[in-house]
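Posting for a labmate who doesn't have an account.
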Amino acid sequence: MANGRPPKYESAEVFHKAINEYFKHCDESRNMPNKAGLCIWVQISRDTYNEYKKRFPDTIKAAEGFIENAWVQRLAGTTPTGAIFYLKNAFKEDYRDRTETDVTSGG
């Protein structure tokens, strides 16, 4: 980013405040928080979001934890399919279908 424009959020504190405003908005409007909505709210692209993961790792991890928890809570509802889909896509590392193949016993 040396030749680009300066970052929108210079400090983790300012970025964290903007993220908390998004979560408050979601709560008040009864919308599920998500990564795309967060990017729109804080006015950054997905690429910038991924750069901020390196720059403000604790802030992003906390935000993703909040989002993940909201979707996990939704799994207790009567139609958890949407929550399962979101978790598998937004948090691929933790929520994926796994198939295990036994390659050592010969069958």
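Reply:
Got it, the structure tokens are right above this. The longest helix spans residues 12-29.
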